Amino acid sequence: MAVVGLSDSPLRPSHGVSAYMQAKGYKIIPVNPTITEALGEKSFASLDDVPVKIDIVNIFRRPEFVEPIVDQAIQLKIPAVWMQEGVVNENAAEKARKAGMFVAMDLCILKEHRARFR
Q1: What is the DSSP letter of 84?
Q2: Which helix (H) or strand (E) holds 18?
Q3: In whole angstroms, how far apart are CA 69 and each of 20, 31, 40, 47, 57?
């Protein structure tokens, strides 16, 4: 799971959510050009720089920054984009759906995981 906007600060929601998912067995790939690592994983500047196959792009960015991320995900043929709580970009979501991607928007992946896999 590539996490765009993952912070190396334990005080940020992106860090806590990603730490939870990592503890549940998910491979976390930080994507943030301002850090070198988070949660013991090397950080990459963009999705294009990630050298392994990505299954989900989990987005912790403000809505106005989402569309280019989704465009990259479409280009890389990533099957799913997940926009965290408060992240709503209908244009990006529609683009992703038209490209055949699974789209979650304005949902917390941690809360959804907990609800389904108690």
Answers
A1: P
A2: helix 13-23
A3: 23, 11, 23, 8, 9
User: What's the CA gap between 109 and 2, in Å, rounded?
Assistant: 13
Q: Could you tell me the sign of the dihedral formed by the alpha carbons of 22, 6, 84, 50, in that order?
A: negative
Cα distance between residue 104 and residue 64, in whole Å:
17
pLDDT 10s digits, 31-43? 999 999 999 999 9
pLDDT tens per residue across span 54-83: 999 999 999 999 999 999 999 999 999 999
DSSP reduced 3-state for 81: strand
What is the rounded CA–CA span in Å between residue 32 and residue 25? 21
Q: How far is CA 82 from CA 26, 30, 36, 91, 100, in A?
A: 15, 14, 23, 14, 14
Residue 42 corresponds to which amino acid?
K
Global pTM value: 0.96
In order of 31, 36, 69, 111, the CA distances from 73 in angstroms are 12, 21, 6, 23
pLDDT for 118 beyond 90: no
What is the residue type of 22?
A: Q
